[in-house]
Write a structure and sequence with these properties.
Structural class: mainly beta
Helix content: under 10%
Number of helices: 0
CATH architecture: Sandwich
Number of strands: 11
Strand content: over 45%
CATH class: Mainly Beta
CATH superfamily: Jelly Rolls
Distance between the termini: 19 Å
Shape: globular
Order of helices and strands: EEEEEEEEEEE
Radius of gyration: 13 Å
């Protein structure tokens, strides 16, 4: 399990939310002084598919999900404190069976 930050200091947070799938997935963009960015968000119950441009690391802060990377033969389950990496120019399907899955997405 990875150690997840409980807060980010010295950053800019964009107040306009990124909403997907009729609001069932919502995130906010966090900009860091070094020019990097992350999003922090919530995924409500359902199944969703996302495409990636840049490689991403998805860290699960709370809740759980089942993820299938594009081209992967099987799904994997992730819970709080775990992460998965998604290649650039790819995608993944994510399913939240119940509750809310909270995440930090880092653009690698």
């Amino acid at each position: 399990m990875s150690v997840l930050p409980s807060q980010f200091s010295g950053v800019t947070v964009l107040t306009k939310a990124n909403l997907y799938f009729d609001g069932k997935v919502a995130s906010h963009t966090v900009l860091f002084p070094d020019g990097s960015k992350k999003t922090i968000g919530l995924i409500y119950p359902g199944s969703f598919h996302f495409k990636t441009g840049a490689p991403e690391r998805m860290e699960i802060v709370a809740g759980s999900c089942r993820v299938t990377l594009d081209g992967a033969p099987a799904a994997n389950d992730y819970a709080a404190g775990q992460h998965f990496d998604v290649p650039g120019n790819s995608g993944f399907a994510i399913e939240v069976a119940g509750g809310v899955c909270e995440y930090i997405c880092s653009f690698l």
